Amino acid sequence: MGLSSVRKKGKFYNLSSDQVSLKPCYSLLQEIHRYSYNKICADCSAENPDWCSLNLGVIICIECSGIHRSLGTHISKVRSLTLDKFTYEATLLLCSLGNANSNSIWEAFKPENKPGKDTQKETKTKYIQAKYIHKRFMKRSRENPSQILFDAIQSGNIPKALEAIALGVNVNDPYPLEMLSDPVSLIPPPFLIRLPVLDIYGNPYPNKRIDISLSSTPKDPEYYVIRYPIHLALYKQDLVMVEFLFQYGSNTFQIDEATGCLLAHLIGYGHHVIEQNALDFLNLKNSLRGQPAIDKLNTISLSSNKMC
């Protein structure tokens, strides 16, 4: 049974994919509670919390979990750490965050009036709304949130990616070309057919050949590079980051305005730069959302600029 390690604050979680994938996560709860900052609720400090907000990355008590549910799933995706089932990637995502990393973002300026476990629910509700909806305790940054997310994906830094989200980045926005210092091309290498050169009698000349390319070059080839966060995470084979981006609404079936193609088709066209396991994971996530599989594509229509 292979173990995977997730680094967090200089320590590592050792988690078995056979134990945690799609099973009630008692082992995960025990592992999370090994660290003092996860033994209390991120919002009211109640002891032994056994709920979480998967996308916000916090461990919370049952009362605060109810308040989180009232915020809506676009703000907080609440799960029970003992009753719900977690995929392996979702498990590693939660372990990459936790209360220390997440509260360093959501409570960068810790308020004096933070509620305690015995505080009235109405007061807790106002505090949680201020923390996650109005973002009153966050530290603002002059850095471009898109650049923060780009750097986070490049380095596999989930907490930094959460910071970009908190600062308002849209995970479906493409990166401008000037941000890409070393862009990864989606255009496959040319596929050549080598034909003999014949004389007037139909006999081939020795050592003479003609190479004919069967590949097409799309219009505006500079845009046929990896320019989207989800695409970059797939290229990096960082499935935990892919899971994180999906938690925040990443959509592979949006239209790329620069090329007129679906992002899914750009991913399929550039399949030679994406590992098969990453493409399989993406198709699994899309199937759970009722979306079609992304196929490997070898050509692009130059007339309509759409994939075929």
TrEMBL record:
Keywords: GTPase activation, Metal-binding, Zinc, Zinc-finger. PANTHER family: ADP-RIBOSYLATION FACTOR GTPASE-ACTIVATING PROTEIN EFFECTOR PROTEIN 1, CENTAURIN/ARF. InterPro entries: ACAP1/2/3-like, ARFGAP/RecO, ArfGAP_dom, ArfGAP_dom_sf. Pfam families: ArfGap. The lineage of its organism: Eukaryota, Fungi, Fungi incertae sedis, Mucoromycota, Mucoromycotina. It comes from the Eukaryota. It comes from Rhizopus oryzae (Mucormycosis agent). Gene3D superfamilies: Arf GTPase activating protein. SUPFAM superfamilies: ArfGap/RecO-like zinc finger. Residues 26-145 form the Arf-GAP domain. The keyword Metal-binding applies. This is Arf-GAP domain-containing protein. One of its GO terms (molecular function) is zinc ion binding. SMART domains: ArfGap.
